[in-house]
Amino acid sequence: MSQPNSADRPPAVAQHNQPPKHTENPWTEALKTIGLSLVLALGIRHFVAEARYIPSESMVPTLEVNDRLIVEKISYLFNPPQRYDIIVFIPPEAAGQACLGLASPGGRIKDAFIKRVIGLPGEEIAVRNGQVFVNGQPLQENYISAPPNYQWGPQVIDDNSYLVLGDNRNNSCDGHFWGPVPRENIIGRAVFRFWPPGRVGGISPQTP
User: What is the pTM of this model?
Assistant: First the structure.
């Protein structure tokens, strides 16, 4: 039998006696994947957006108890809050005593609040006769549960501060109890409701 021509043979695989490649433990790979996912999730939550839920009736009828929202954090890096925005913020220390009777110092409320921006820096705000007045002019509001039954102000809002009120004006511990919110306390703006299914959609700043 004739021997095959060496030119017809496939090239030989060179053997360098390399050590076998190390295969990573599947559990290690899984832990790395989970760790990376957590880092990404925390980064998004800290810098971009986060989910929040509504625990009280202070924003009825716009937001109801147990609504789930997306709060975005990007826009306020470039533009200041606007009137009618619904914002999430860390309440000032005075809110602890006004809302929960916490004694100062150390009486801060640790949970974030959600309210609507009503007064902007430098504006004079007053509440009287069931109406909010901005620089002496009545504010048109089609989103509140009922007209406010209290009097407040007039007060000029400090620079870099905002007066926030709940849409459920007579059942909301808000700025008419403890004053304006510093801008540095603002976490972000509520933009989208993803629960319950029947109320999924964007949150319009001026209508319920």
Answer: 0.75
